[in-house]
Amino acid sequence: MKVTISVIKADIGGYVGHSSTHPEVVAKVEEYAKAGVEKGTLLDASVITCGDDIAIVMTHTKGKDNEEIHKLAWDAFVAGTEVAKKLKLYGAGQDLLADAFSGNVKGMGPGVAEMEIEERKSEPFIVYFADKTSPSAWNLALYEMFADPMNTAGLVIDPSMHDGFTFEVMDVYSGKAVKLETPRELYDLLVFIGATSRYVVRAVYRNRDGEIAAVASTQKLSLMAGRYVGKDDPVLIVRCQSGFPAVGEALEPFARPWLVEGWMRGSHTGPLMPVSFKEAKPTRFDGPPRVIAAGYQLCEGKLVGPNDLFDDPAFDDARNRCALLANQLRRQGIFEPHRLPPEEMEYTTLPKVLEKLKDRFVDIGEPEAKAPGSGEGEIHE
Ligand code: F6R
Ligand code: MG
Ligand code: MG
């Protein structure tokens, strides 16, 4: 049976500040998701949260980019926003950038990750959900899951994975994407996905048969809105087992924390902390960034789950190391590299401060040079 898994997420109000969601708002979103199942639009739905973001995990038979499915999620978020407004929650409706729904939530604020699959004899998959970071936070994890045999033993041992995987990589500024096949083009892939401020892995396919293996939300909210409206707090769907990474191989990259962009005011580098659902409430300096892993088994399109996969003491060491990294980085305060470089700060509230000081810069006879990076990163022309 062909099933589409659609995960659509948004931040529609924080409790308190940007740290978490309010149970009444989540209950309202759940009510809409449940109604979608009762009406028969959806096969099943599951609502999960991470920090101040809510995701609706939906299964159905209508394919990707389906108007009815996207509208259902949009309506749920609009209704949730009304509750958030009533409670005067912080940033109520902040990710709903458009006034009215028009065909597809893409470009309207919410993040989307969707895949259409033929349900296997047993179909385990994981929905990763992060708060206080951007879609490129998945780049390193996806590389390790699907291209690094030091992480994923199956790339060496399992004949159905041995041909490797192909990564689709998007340039968030041009909106163009390139497909690169590993292991053959591994080094080309790393040129791009190591540059996390610009390139984002959108999807991963199995080389042997072209099967979809993973899909991420790649929307860059600040580019859509033209101003800082929160980092994009991405979702990622990864299929597991029997020719895909084992659940444990898909979780393993998170046991060795790395640094991502986001955290306070979307302006800082910080460790991505793998946490249980209960611990997905970033409060220290509005962080550090969190990730949860919601595991499901598909059963005739029904969602058996979620199972809280980072709720395992084996990840305690990663969490402790994130706390230590957080201490070390906080020592740098507003100084780079804890604070992000100027190119990234362009999409925060900082340009408003710089605007005021622009005319105070005077020529002192030094030659002019282009700012490094994009060439458009000059902050005081
Ligand atoms: C980061 C985030 C928070 C806010 C910060 C300031 O993604 O959402 O760190 O940027 O709390 O928020 P405002 O400007 O709304 O007071
Ligand atoms: Mg927020
Ligand atoms: Mg958030």
From TrEMBL:
<keyword id="KW-0312">Gluconeogenesis</keyword>
<feature type="binding site">
    <location>
        <position position="232"/>
    </location>
    <ligand>
        <name>Mg(2+) 4</name>
    </ligand>
</feature>
<feature type="active site" description="Proton donor/acceptor; for FBP aldolase activity">
    <location>
        <position position="228"/>
    </location>
</feature>
<comment type="function">
    <text>Catalyzes two subsequent steps in gluconeogenesis: the aldol condensation of dihydroxyacetone phosphate (DHAP) and glyceraldehyde-3-phosphate (GA3P) to fructose-1,6-bisphosphate (FBP), and the dephosphorylation of FBP to fructose-6-phosphate (F6P).</text>
</comment>
<feature type="binding site">
    <location>
        <position position="131"/>
    </location>
    <ligand>
        <name>Mg(2+) 2</name>
    </ligand>
</feature>
<feature type="binding site">
    <location>
        <position position="94"/>
    </location>
    <ligand>
        <name>Mg(2+) 1</name>
    </ligand>
</feature>
<feature type="binding site">
    <location>
        <position position="233"/>
    </location>
    <ligand>
        <name>Mg(2+) 2</name>
    </ligand>
</feature>
<feature type="binding site">
    <location>
        <position position="18"/>
    </location>
    <ligand>
        <name>dihydroxyacetone phosphate</name>
    </ligand>
</feature>
<feature type="binding site">
    <location>
        <position position="286"/>
    </location>
    <ligand>
        <name>dihydroxyacetone phosphate</name>
    </ligand>
</feature>
<dbReference type="GO" id="GO:0006094">
    <property type="term" value="P:gluconeogenesis"/>
</dbReference>
<keyword id="KW-0456">Lyase</keyword>
<protein>
    <recommendedName>
        <fullName>Fructose-1,6-bisphosphate aldolase/phosphatase</fullName>
        <ecNumber>3.1.3.11</ecNumber>
        <ecNumber>4.1.2.13</ecNumber>
    </recommendedName>
</protein>
<feature type="binding site">
    <location>
        <position position="53"/>
    </location>
    <ligand>
        <name>Mg(2+) 2</name>
    </ligand>
</feature>
<keyword id="KW-0479">Metal-binding</keyword>
<feature type="binding site">
    <location>
        <begin position="241"/>
        <end position="242"/>
    </location>
    <ligand>
        <name>beta-D-fructose 1,6-bisphosphate</name>
    </ligand>
</feature>
<feature type="binding site">
    <location>
        <position position="132"/>
    </location>
    <ligand>
        <name>dihydroxyacetone phosphate</name>
    </ligand>
</feature>
<feature type="active site" description="Proton acceptor; for FBP phosphatase activity">
    <location>
        <position position="11"/>
    </location>
</feature>
<dbReference type="InterPro" id="IPR002803">
    <property type="entry name" value="FBPase_V"/>
</dbReference>
<feature type="binding site">
    <location>
        <position position="11"/>
    </location>
    <ligand>
        <name>Mg(2+) 1</name>
    </ligand>
</feature>
<keyword id="KW-0704">Schiff base</keyword>
<feature type="binding site">
    <location>
        <position position="52"/>
    </location>
    <ligand>
        <name>Mg(2+) 1</name>
    </ligand>
</feature>
<feature type="binding site" description="in other chain">
    <location>
        <position position="18"/>
    </location>
    <ligand>
        <name>beta-D-fructose 1,6-bisphosphate</name>
    </ligand>
</feature>
<comment type="similarity">
    <text>Belongs to the FBP aldolase/phosphatase family.</text>
</comment>
<feature type="binding site">
    <location>
        <position position="265"/>
    </location>
    <ligand>
        <name>dihydroxyacetone phosphate</name>
    </ligand>
</feature>
<keyword id="KW-0460">Magnesium</keyword>
<feature type="binding site" description="in other chain">
    <location>
        <begin position="103"/>
        <end position="104"/>
    </location>
    <ligand>
        <name>beta-D-fructose 1,6-bisphosphate</name>
    </ligand>
</feature>
<dbReference type="GO" id="GO:0000287">
    <property type="term" value="F:magnesium ion binding"/>
</dbReference>
<dbReference type="GO" id="GO:0042132">
    <property type="term" value="F:fructose 1,6-bisphosphate 1-phosphatase activity"/>
</dbReference>
<feature type="binding site" description="in other chain">
    <location>
        <position position="286"/>
    </location>
    <ligand>
        <name>beta-D-fructose 1,6-bisphosphate</name>
    </ligand>
</feature>
<feature type="binding site">
    <location>
        <position position="18"/>
    </location>
    <ligand>
        <name>Mg(2+) 1</name>
    </ligand>
</feature>
<keyword id="KW-0119">Carbohydrate metabolism</keyword>
<dbReference type="InterPro" id="IPR036076">
    <property type="entry name" value="FBPase_V_sf"/>
</dbReference>
<feature type="active site" description="Schiff-base intermediate with DHAP; for FBP aldolase activity">
    <location>
        <position position="231"/>
    </location>
</feature>
<comment type="subunit">
    <text>Homooctamer; dimer of tetramers.</text>
</comment>
<feature type="binding site" description="in other chain">
    <location>
        <position position="90"/>
    </location>
    <ligand>
        <name>beta-D-fructose 1,6-bisphosphate</name>
    </ligand>
</feature>
<feature type="binding site">
    <location>
        <position position="232"/>
    </location>
    <ligand>
        <name>Mg(2+) 3</name>
    </ligand>
</feature>
<feature type="binding site" description="in other chain">
    <location>
        <position position="265"/>
    </location>
    <ligand>
        <name>beta-D-fructose 1,6-bisphosphate</name>
    </ligand>
</feature>
<feature type="binding site">
    <location>
        <position position="233"/>
    </location>
    <ligand>
        <name>Mg(2+) 3</name>
    </ligand>
</feature>
<dbReference type="Pfam" id="PF01950">
    <property type="entry name" value="FBPase_3"/>
</dbReference>
<feature type="binding site">
    <location>
        <position position="231"/>
    </location>
    <ligand>
        <name>Mg(2+) 3</name>
    </ligand>
</feature>
<feature type="binding site" description="in other chain">
    <location>
        <position position="132"/>
    </location>
    <ligand>
        <name>beta-D-fructose 1,6-bisphosphate</name>
    </ligand>
</feature>
<feature type="binding site" description="in other chain">
    <location>
        <position position="347"/>
    </location>
    <ligand>
        <name>beta-D-fructose 1,6-bisphosphate</name>
    </ligand>
</feature>
